[in-house]
């Protein structure tokens, strides 16, 4: 019997949690030959390999070693190197996930080689074209053949952009598949002990978690300074752990803003903004799962806190994931000091209620995606090879 050939592209940290459940699902299905391609957009051990290990994703079949660069250079390098892989291997379908530069680059290359593209996490829109991810989302969706949508807003967005209904599939959220699969394992992480905060077991501990990496928040000195000094006020009341993305650390140092950070966790100040190196997936999940509050500009964390029932303040003016506000624990507070602190005090002064899981965020999205792809490509599987 012929094998169905699937190529999957990943590049940056948030892609890895999305591909993991898909890779695991594929490994359960006979008759599929799968190759995983890592563009190398993220390459630090803590940004890449450590997550692969935690999620038991097999070593990529190809690492394109693209690394950092301007948007044009990074996207172009992924395109050139990925094209060579596709020409050599000729898959039947290419899976791309999320909205990073590697996602768009891979989708463009595959489409031009007439290889169908499946976009996982299609249809999300912030309507803010100053975000590189919004450009990547719109363009990737415009040229993909299978659009796998995480929330209903995505269906509407795609229809308004004129995408044919028979290309759109509401399948749920693979990032949540990953979270549900790993939550118990993450509970065994020793991160809380290492950070000297109580809270193992069910109870929430008295700390908050901050993540920041969006260019709009970290590339401008004034904006970053205002954000850090605002969070520093909150951090007078409870410690704020801050696993720092490499680009943010570069900016904090470059702008001379390290004064807002506590010197190191070993000072055990139990207050202040406490910088940490980027964490592994399981450590970060454990840290989120016991926090009183998350402050973030990440998209994925808005979704994860929704399922964990942890209050989330999004330090942006918009979200492409409105279901996290409607169903979940997410509040969009922007960069306004008064708004951020008012929301934070109100969360700290009351007990958090549980979040409500959005429709189809049930741990089975990757299964649905594979069922749809198999349905489409089954004739090929049934054709004798030769
Ligand atoms: C990328 C994605 C963003 C995603 C984020 C998650 C795009 C346009 N952006 O942003 O959507 O939310 O990943 O982290 O694709 N760097 C390192 N080590 C690494 C990777 C990056 O030090 O392993 C530093 C480099 O200085 C690099 C900078 O981070 O120039 C930015 O990396 P890049 O991949 O361009 O974008 P991210 O900000 O990580």
Q: What's the helix count? A: 16
N-to-C order of helices and strands: EHEHEHEHEHEHEHHEHHEHEHEHEHEHH
Distance between the termini: 9 Å
Q: Please report which band the strand proportion falls in: under 5%, 5-15%, 15-25%, 25-35%, 35-45% or over 45%.
A: 5-15%
Helical amount = 40-55%
Number of strands: 13
Structure, described:
Helix 13 (299-308) links the parallel strand 11 and strand 12 (312-314). The N and C termini lie close together (9 Å). This protein is of the alpha/beta class and 386 residues long. The protein is 44% helix and 15% strand. Helix 7 (174-186) crosses helix 12 (281-289). It has helices at 13-27, 49-54, 71-89, 101-112, 132-143, 152-160, 174-186, 191-194, 215-218, 221-234, 246-254, 281-289, 299-308, 323-326, 337-348, 365-382; strands at 4-10, 32-38, 62-63, 93-97, 117-122, 146-149, 168-170, 208-211, 240-243, 273-276, 293-296, 312-314, 330-332. The strands form 2 sheets. It has a 7-stranded parallel β-sheet, with helices on both faces. The chain is built from 16 helices and 13 strands.
């Amino acid at each position: 019997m012929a094998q169905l050939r699937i190529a999957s592209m990943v590049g940056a940290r948030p892609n890895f949690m999305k591909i993991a459940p898909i890779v695991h699902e594929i490994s359960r299905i006979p008759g599929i030959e799968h190759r995983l391609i890592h563009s190398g957009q993220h390459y630090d051990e803590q940004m890449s390999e450590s997550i692969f290990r935690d999620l038991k994703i097999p070593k990529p079949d190809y690492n394109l070693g693209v690394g950092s660069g301007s948007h044009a250079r990074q996207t172009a390098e992924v395109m050139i190197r990925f094209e060579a892989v596709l020409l050599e291997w000729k898959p039947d379908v290419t899976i791309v996930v999320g909205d990073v530069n590697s996602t768009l680059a891979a989708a463009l290359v595959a489409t031009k080689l007439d290889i169908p593209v499946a976009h996982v996490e299609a249809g999300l829109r912030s309507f803010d074209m100053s975000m590189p991810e919004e450009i990547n989302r719109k363009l990737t969706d415009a040229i993909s053949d299978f659009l796998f949508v995480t929330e209903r807003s995505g269906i509407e967005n795609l229809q308004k952009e004129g995408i044919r209904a028979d290309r759109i599939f509401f399948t749920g959220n693979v990032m949540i598949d990953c979270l549900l699969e790993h939550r118990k394992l993450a509970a065994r992480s020793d991160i809380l002990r290492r950070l000297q905060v109580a809270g193992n077991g069910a109870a929430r501990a008295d700390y908050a978690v901050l993540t920041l990496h969006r260019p709009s928040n970290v590339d401008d000195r004034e904006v970053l300074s205002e954000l850090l000094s605002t969070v520093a006020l909150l951090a007078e009341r409870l410690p704020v752990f801050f696993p720092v993305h490499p680009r943010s650390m570069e900016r904090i140092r470059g702008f001379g803003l390290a004064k807002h950070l506590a010197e190191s966790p070993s000072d055990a100040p139990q207050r202040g903004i406490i910088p940490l190196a980027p964490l592994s997936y399981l450590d970060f999940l454990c840290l989120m799962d016991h926090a009183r509050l998350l402050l973030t500009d990440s998209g994925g964390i808005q979704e994860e806190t929704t399922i964990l029932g942890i209050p989330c303040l999004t330090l942006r003016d918009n979200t492409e994931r409105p279901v996290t506000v409607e169903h979940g624990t997410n509040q969009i507070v922007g960069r306004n000091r008064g708004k951020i602190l008012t929301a934070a005090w109100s969360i700290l002064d009351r007990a958090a209620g549980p979040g409500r899981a959005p429709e189809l965020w049930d741990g089975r999205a990757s299964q649905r995606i594979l069922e749809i792809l198999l349905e489409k490509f089954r004739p090929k599987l049934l054709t004798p090879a030769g």
